[in-house]
Amino acid sequence: MTASKDREIGIRVLRAGPLALLQDAGRFGVRHLGVTQGGPADLYSWAWANALAGNPWGTASLEITIGGLEMVAERDLEIAIAGAHLGATLDQRPVPLWERMTWKEGQVLRFASPVTGLRAYLSVRGGFAAEPVMGSVACVMREQLGGFDGLGSKLQTGDQLTVHPAGPSNHTGTQQAPSDVRPDFSVEPVLSLLPGAQIAEFSGQSLYDAFNARWQVDERADRMGVRLTGPRLDCRVRSLISEGINLGSVQVPPDGQPIALLNDRQTIGGYPRLGALTPLSASRLAQCKPGQEVRFRATGSGEGLREYRAFRAAIDRMGART
């Protein structure tokens, strides 16, 4: 990758690790073409990393899953890391999360393995640079779209990452996210779910189990969706004419075990749906390790909207200070 006048090389990858992807807010307005949205699996942590780095909403950041990534700065950078605790170190010293810091030229940033959570977000002031595909640089590997090369590739050893030059900053002192907005990924999450169109087709026992049982995150979990195991949910409707699938949709296939669909989901599906997770609950689920237990809580659209607006307002306040 070569730099142009509006971008410059800022980072070189020494070891790629299992999965690191470039993600902006996502690719919208193209689902009628069968193209999914992509974007950060944990929107919440992605947004905080960008705000702390002094970037506007939608700026491309690096989503690091599991860890194993090692990079060296090619010049001084202002960065912020939010999300999972992946044992990040800078020249072998622990890196503070959820705050802005300086990554000096020649220093090596390493991500080891998950302590809590699965995905960390690295934002660089000015943002990572790449050519948009269908209006977005969001990386969707299955569809070979977006990312640093435009072909949906994950980060590889030897890649050189370009960044946009950072504009003037009014940043003075330490910028940290307030303690009350930092999630504790070790705590069992209660996921808010908006009941769906087919919820009345599930048996009474199944509805009781859905909202009272603990569900275990299955090993079959990725950016497309998360399978949950627990009591069998029975629905009178076995299949439907395929319809559009939104972020957080909780489908129930014939085996009765729900699947919560995330950013790289298919665009249509024909299984009955229990409902849909709110965007913030979908983000929380994306940080759950296999074997972790979760619970569902029924909610209304009004409550979900208030939570989302409060989140965006907090992000805007932080952005105004950076």
TrEMBL record:
Carboxyltransferase domain span: 32-314
A GO MF label: ATP binding
Q: Which SMART domains match?
A: AHS2
Here the segments flagged for biased composition (Polar residues) are 169-178
Coiled-coil positions are none
State the residue spans of region: Disordered: 158-181
The alphabetized UniProt keywords are: ATP-binding, Hydrolase, Nucleotide-binding
Q: Which domain of life is it from?
A: Bacteria
InterPro entries, per the entry: CT_A_B, Cyclophilin-like_dom_sf, PxpC
One family name in Pfam for this protein: CT_A_B
Name assigned to this protein: Allophanate hydrolase subunit 2
